[in-house]
Amino acid sequence: MSEQVLQVRGLVKDYGERRVLDGVDVAVGEHEIVVLIGASGSGKSTLLRCVNLLEEIDDGQILLDGQDVSDPRVDPDLARRRMGVVFQSYNLFPHLSVLDNVTLAPRVVHGLGRAEAEERGRALLARVGLADRAGSYPDRLSGGQQQRVAIVRALAYEPRLLLLDEITSALDPELVGEVLALVRELAEQGTTILMATHEMGFARQVADRVCFLDGGVLVESGPPERVLVDPEHDRTWQFLRRVIQAGRL
């Protein structure tokens, strides 16, 4: 078994009287791609926000490389520096160029010199086919290009774990493929990823494990060929039938 980069144990998250995550256990090994699936409101995004310590948890533990980063005594900013995160919206700074967006965190948060940060940033932009857009501003890019820049920004400081939250949901259908192709390339290169997606075909092709969440409960987890083709639980079957009817599998 590969070294476990992330371990989520018995995670509970409440919003007032509503329980959004109910005792969730998830582990991500080094170089693994673990994909979260489930209907809207199932808890996928909340789980990712809890892992990134953007949400305070009510019970359970979040361990990153064996360290309990959910311990109140741990500085969450230090823990977040070891994780890259990309959300549905690109969240690029509109007043900064593409290169400045990519190099801001390595320089300001991680103390990297400008020359080194820019060299690394340009190399990453070239890797995703955007070398010629380094000096452009976000509003001059397509949605797919902006999302690729957001992913590059998350990779710029070499995170231990990459968190991706429905990164294609805000894109036009013709732009989805280029972003998923980048994630597929990252997976092939050994990036450790925990991602939520509604792209079932992509999950089946790329994931090492698929986790189905329903009503804040982890219903089942396993290889994609089992969970997406021959699931053990009726709740998973019901979800997949809806996905098939919607033409997403």
UniProtKB/TrEMBL annotation:
GO terms for cellular component: plasma membrane. InterPro entries: AAA+_ATPase, ABC_ATPase_HisP-typ, ABC_transporter-like_ATP-bd, ABC_transporter-like_CS, MetN_ABC_transporter-like, P-loop_NTPase. It is found in: Cell membrane. It comes from the Bacteria. Keywords: Amino-acid transport, ATP-binding, Cell membrane, Membrane, Nucleotide-binding, Transport. Pfam families: ABC_tran. PROSITE patterns: ABC_TRANSPORTER_1, ABC_TRANSPORTER_2. The keyword Transmembrane helix does not apply. Its main location: membrane. It is a peripheral membrane protein. GO terms for molecular function: ABC-type amino acid transporter activity; ATP binding; ATP hydrolysis activity. Residues 6-240 form the ABC transporter domain. PANTHER family: AMINO ACID IMPORT ATP-BINDING PROTEIN (PTHR43166), GLUTAMATE_ASPARTATE IMPORT ATP-BINDING PROTEIN GLTL (PTHR43166:SF9). Belongs to the ABC transporter superfamily. This is ABC transporter domain-containing protein. It comes from Kutzneria albida DSM 43870.
